[in-house]
Structures are given as C-alpha cells and as structure tokens.
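User: Once you have settled down, look closely at the record that follows, taking as long as you need, and be ready to discuss the fold:
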Amino acid sequence: MTDSVPILQTTIAHKTVERILERAIAVQQVAAPTFGELKRAEFVREAFFQAGLHDVSMDAIHNVYGRLPGSVGGACLVVSAHLDTVFATDTDLSVRRSGSRIWGPGIGDNSLGVAALVELPRLLEETQIAPARDLWLVANVCEEGQGDLRGMRAVLERFGPSPAAWVVLEGGFLGRVCFRGIGSRRYRVAVRTEGGHSWFDFGKPSAVHVLAGLAKQLIDLHLPQRPKTTLNIGVIEGGTSVNTIAESAHLQLDLRSESPKALNELVGRVERLQGSFAAEGAEVGWETIGDRPAGGLAPEHPLVACTIGALEEAGFDGSEIDTAPASTDANIPLAAGHPAVCIGLTRGYNLHRRDEYIETEGLGTGLVQLLLLLKKLQRP
C-alpha cells in the first residue's frame, strides 16, 4: 500500500460517497435511451460548466466533452462514461434505497459512472491530485445495444492516437479490469412471401417456415470453444395469426468472439450461408445492424499493470480481480491499437433489468482505485 492510499481513503469519507450517490440518482432520473440521450447530455454539459472545466462542448451526436488542464502538457488522458441506458423514455425510474443497496433502472449502468465523471474534478481537488497531463472527461452516447458504440467511435475520431491512455467507467463493474474487448457482428434477417390462408392456400411458402429453416442451419454451425465464440438468435418475430401462412418474419442474430480472427471466420461462414440460402417463392434480406470490433492489450501491458495495481492498493484482493473480456466502449480504442481499460466503481446486479441495484459499500474502494490509477498515469 502506497503512502497516499490512507489519505485518499480518509478524504473519500461517507459524506463524499453520499454526494456521488445523490449525483448518480439525479443522473438516473433523466431518461436516456440509446439514440435519446440529449436531455442527459445537457444535464452533464451544465455540470461540466459548473465544475469549471475548459473547452466544454457537445458534438453533433450529443457526446459531451470537458478538459481539466494539466500542469505540464504532453499526451492527454481520456476518461469516459456512457450516457445511454437500455430503458425506454417512459420507463418508471423510481428509486428505492434500503441499507447498503439502491434500486433503480440504470442506476449502475451507467448513472453511477456518469456521476463519478461529473464529480471527478472536485474529487481531484479534494485529494490534492493535480493532473500533470490534460484530462479530458467525455460523456458519450450509444454504448448500449444497437447504438453499436457509435458515440465512442466519434470520440476516437476526435482524439485519434493522441491520448496516452483511455479509462472507461462502468458503475457496476467493481473488481473487473477489462483490457480485452469482445467483438460482435449483428444481423437482421427478414423473409417475405405471398402468404395466404393456412387451409385453402396450403403449400405456399410461409415466411415463418423459411425463417425457421434458416435458423436451424445457423444454430447447427460448429463454434470453437477456444477462443470463446458464440452465436445467438435473440429475436424472432413474424406472422399474423395461427391460421395464416405468414407473409413476413424476421430474426436478429448476434455473433461474438474474444478473438478478431475467430469472429471474422464465423462471419465468413454466416455470410457464405447467406449467399447460398434460398427458398422458392421467398425473398430473404440481410441487414447488418451491429459491428463491434474486438481487440485487446497483453496482460503484461503497463496500463494493465497500473490498473490492477491501483485496485489492489485500494484494498481489493488480487485473487478476486476479474480480467475476463467484455463488450464495452473500450473496444473502440483497443481495436484501433490504443491503450484502454474499463473499470468499475461499485458492485452492480440485475443489469438491464428494472430491478437493477448497486451495493453502496464498495463505492469508496472504486473511487480510490480511480484516483490511484489517474495518479499513476500522470507519470511520463
């Protein structure tokens, strides 16, 4: 444990933790479905202004940027948290608190991450950590689902290779250090036929039957166990009634792998099936609806060592640290060959469910980890 850790732990007292939790609830109360993050983005932009950040701005897709100037200069650091949630605008966002738990849709994923981002300038001031490098804080859109990491793609386009490191914050990720991104390719497959009456027109092609045949061929594809590679049909819809030959049906297909090579091989096999699959009297259309690149750092990379070291120094048992790959905003800089890592702030459960909750007791550890990491990354 370094000399600064007890000082940080003392500074990040109960009052500080409560302030950040209150900020997280305030963020959570502003609905921010993917592609509908504008109101939450405006909330964060105003908070950045109030925090005294420089160069505060919002881009065309509603990513929000603010700069905390460094004392020396050189390559900057980027700290980001995604604004969007999986919940629709009309979702009941009521929050309930009992003991060390807070329940609320999106409270951990990612309202707490955004709250920590907004509070970071004050935390650095309170703990007397003066950044040597410029520190760019970014609240980005479109991390979830069909957002396809669109927000972080725009952030990377803005900064390019200039940052010394990228640190992505997830509210409910404490204990995980993600430096390998799971890649994915997603498709929407739609089938159309003439349709008809189930009795009088029996024998005509059904869009549902055709789609079921295609689905069977997809799930029969052999997948490697290592590197872990998966295929999932997450949505299948179609038809009109039980006694109607369906004239339309569609499915949504998700392909994933922790290996760029394995993912590309699976994509190639699926696209060969796409080219060869045909059914008389049916029109089959394929649309790519998601493309998240895979990429990662070697376990011995200095950023990985710094991040794991910060978590251990904050008091986390090293044997419990989870370094499994995941699909996060870090995928984008990692796939481009830039040093990036995703870390958490406390433990979160039931993510993407309305009964999502966070454990508040771990937040102090998560904040100390973040501050220690940023302090380490100030070194040339």
